[in-house]
Design brief:
The complex is a heterodimer. By secondary structure, chain A is mainly α. Chain A has a domain at 73-220: MetI-like fold (Orthogonal Bundle), CATH 1.10.3720.10. Helix content of chain A is 81%, strand content 0%. Chain A contains 11 helices and no strands. Chain A has helices spanning 3-27, 45-52, 54-86, 90-105, 108-122, 128-153, 156-164, 169-198, 201-206, 212-221, 226-255. The longest helix of chain A has 33 residues, at 54-86. Chain A is globular and about 75 Å long. The two termini of chain B are 35 Å apart. Chain B has helices spanning 8-29, 44-51, 53-85, 92-100, 107-118, 123-130, 142-167, 170-178, 183-212, 215-220, 228-237, 242-266; strands at 31-33, 39-41. Chain B is globular. Chain B is built from 12 helices and 2 strands. Chain B has a domain at 63-226: MetI-like fold (Orthogonal Bundle). The longest helix of chain B is centred in the first third of the chain and has 33 residues, at 53-85. In chain B, a hairpin with a 5-residue loop joins β1 and β2. The chains are: A mainly alpha, B mainly alpha. At the A-B interface, α1, α3, α4, α5 and α6 of A face α1, α3, α4, α5 and α6 of B.
Chain lengths: 256, 276
């Protein structure tokens, strides 16, 4: 196959990946209430509607709150857990990691249902609290998985050298181990934020309070609403810009 | 003993929020509520499931639709991974990033986006109308669900294969070429076998979310076609039969764990395919 054909093929796949997103963005400016291809003129109306929509703004606020708080708590519990797990005997470690991997491997729908049964059984109302608890639960394993390899790469002698030179264990941890595993902790935290924002299935089963995903699901299943197009365009633009910036920064980092 | 102390808060959390909930699913799955309100151990739900034509059909439908979507992803995705790992493009890093970006967008929105394109009054039909064809009903069928699965999970196939191909030892390919093997033979005897770990992790990363989805089928079939995910969702949110829903969740979980087990056998030494 010639080079041009290969390039054409890859371009077609990229077209396939991006066509719906681009079309959605274009039609978020279309002055029509119906889901048709017909262009009825340019408007910002759907964006204005979006910012007057209290239900959507509430859902957005819930999503951001849950993402941040669950990621912070999961990062703290997860990092401490990784340090402890790292020091465990091989057998205990195996058992703990098997349990830790369960939420990662299990289908989201099973995790969601299992947590819902727990909340109903214990009597926690399905709302913001249960949503937060669920998100912490599925975030912790990803923090542990991000931090553990960094602990494995540590040079044990450094920590012992610090102790020999008179540092207290807590001081040595803070000054020697923490800086070494920090990249893993940050990766874990970012992982947690993203997973939390992206989650739909587990939130859907464990909360009656709408976050953005649940709001979108309910809105999409109802009748056509062009302000959903505006919402997705905004979300996509934010993610796109963030990722490009992060990527540029990490490329610069590597060059230096 | 003291050195493991910091893991204790997590251990308590894991027991409460990972172990206990799954035990609850098992409890509901293996019990039925009797007419007098008491709960009794029973395999009745399992028997019902495996003798019910509707539910077995939903299970079978989920498996084959996910399998077809996985196969299409492999066929479409392998060449992309292959070309992006070679020196066909100058800005490969950017192209890989462009593949990752849609994955960070909400799955519901990505799926929803296709409604505008595929609607009977949508853009595809408008374009076909120009050349005198259609309108066709692209949505609300089996094919539209498979289409949605392929669209949503294609990057999960491309990225693990790509990361294996990039790390591959290219001197092996050169050796084969030096020894006079033609390009197709080099590919099938050297490159493809070496990329198998990536292929297997790609397969499991596409198959698993596809077989358990309920949002894609809800949106693209207008709740007409039921997959396992939809059936389970129904038991919990509409039919309110938690015992039966739990039984089906257990069956789905076993199905996934078997898939995982098989793919991990072939996937040694490749940790998750390096998604990030």
């Amino acid at each position: 196959m010639s080079k041009t054909l290969k390039k054409l093929y890859v371009s077609l796949i990229f077209l396939f990946m991006y066509a719906p997103i681009v079309v959605l963005a274009i039609y978020s400016f279309n002055d029509s209430k119906f889901r048709t291809a017909q262009w009825k003129g340019f408007t910002f109306k759907w964006y204005e509607r979006l910012f007057e929509n209290d239900q959507m703004l509430g859902a957005l606020q819930t999503t951001l709150y849950i993402a941040f708080v669950s990621a912070v708590i999961a990062t703290i519990i997860g990092t401490l857990a990784a340090i402890g797990i790292h020091n465990m005997s091989k057998r205990t470690k195996g058992v703990v990691m098997a349990v830790t991997n369960l939420p990662v491997l299990n289908p989201d729908i099973v995790t969601g249902i299992a947590l819902m049964l727990l909340y109903v059984f214990v009597g926690i109302p399905l709302g913001r609290t249960s949503l937060l608890l669920s998100h912490i639960t599925f975030n912790i394993p990803y923090v542990i998985i991000s931090v553990l390899p960094k602990l494995g790469q540590l040079n044990k002698n450094m920590y012992e050298a610090a102790l020999d030179l008179g540092a207290s264990p807590a001081y040595a941890y803070r000054k020697i181990i923490l800086p070494e595993i920090l990249p893993g902790i940050i990766t874990g935290f970012l992982f947690a934020v993203t997973l939390s924002i992206d989650d739909f299935v587990i939130s859907f089963f464990t909360s009656r309070t709408e976050n953005l995903s649940i709001y979108i699901y309910n809105a999409v299943s109802k009748k056509y609403d062009p302000s959903i197009n505006a919402l997705s365009t905004l979300m996509f633009a934010v993610i796109f810009i963030l990722l490009v910036i992060v990527n540029k920064r990490s490329v610069k980092h590597e060059e230096n | 003993m003291r050195k493991t102390l910091s893991a204790y808060p997590y251990l308590v959390w894991a027991v409460l929020f990972i172990v206990v909930p799954l035990l609850l699913v098992a409890y509901y799955g293996f019990t039925v509520e009797q007419a007098d309100g008491t709960v009794a151990f029973s395999l009745e739900n399992f028997r019902d499931f495996f003798t019910s034509e509707i539910y077995l059909q939903a299970l079978w439908r989920s498996i084959w639709m996910a399998a077809v979507a996985t196969a299409i992803c492999l066929l479409l995705g392998y060449p992309v991974a292959y070309y992006l790992s070679g020196n066909l493009f100058k800005n490969k890093g950017l192209l890989v990033l462009l593949l990752v970006i849609p994955m960070w967008m909400n799955l519901l929105l990505r799926t929803y986006a296709w409604l505008i394109l595929l609607d009977t009054k949508g853009i595809f039909n408008a374009l076909l109308g120009f050349i005198g064809l259609g309108p066709f009903e692209f949505l609300y069928g089996t094919h539209s669900i498979i289409f949605g699965m392929v669209y949503n999970f294609l990057p999960f196939m491309i990225l693990p294969i790509h990361s294996v191909l990039v790390k591959m030892d290219h001197s092996l390919v050169e050796a084969a070429q030096d020894l006079g093997a033609p390009p197709t033979r080099v590919f099938f005897k050297v490159t493809f076998p070496l990329s198998l770990p990536g292929v297997f992790s790609g397969i499991s990363m596409v198959f698993m979310p596809a077989v358990t989805t309920f949002a894609i089928s809800d949106i693209l079939s207008g709740r007409k076609i039921q997959l396992m995910g939809n059936v389970i969702e129904n038991q919990f949110l509409r039919a309110d039969n938690w015992n039966y829903g739990s039984t089906m969740s257990l069956i789905l979980m076993v199905l996934i764990l078997i898939t995982m087990f098989i793919s991990s056998k072939y996937d040694k030494g490749n940790e998750g395919g390096g998604l990030l």
